[in-house]
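From the shared-data thread, chain only:
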Amino acid sequence: MSEDTPDSLIPYDEIVQEALRAVVGRVLGVIARGGSELPGNHHFYITFKTHAPGVSIPAHLRERFPDEMTIVLQNKFWDLEVGDEGFSVGLSFNQIPAKLDIPYAAITAFVDPAVDFGLQFQAAVAELAPEEHDDAQNDAEGQAGQSDANGNGDDGGDDGSNVVTVDFGRKK
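Structure, as tokens:
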């Protein structure tokens, strides 16, 4: 695109981001309807903004992850409920059960390392400077390897070939 490209009056980037977040909801809905059993080696890393509107997590997790948090849905999760605007799930953190409510708009990444698939999103909430934090460490047994939100890690190597990143440039 050239410098002379006019600004769009149609919010394409927002429309595409919303559609891609719907993919996350659809995938989680398939899992929830199947009794919350993940087929094969599928497992999900879901990264979200902890202070986004509608996010509900225990205070000790919000203190530990003041900006962004990655959860793993693999072996130990329960009560997965999927709605039109977001999902809720039960997870254990250091053997302490917690219920998390996460709107799709708060999600910044969704990765399924088992099939080398990932989505990255522009944050739908006001950006704050990211702060350093520990890994989530929810009690997932038998993980294929730890991975960051981009699917990079010791899960066999990821060249990012199946990661979809949508970033519409805007004229400043």
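The first strand starts at residue 44 and ends at 49.
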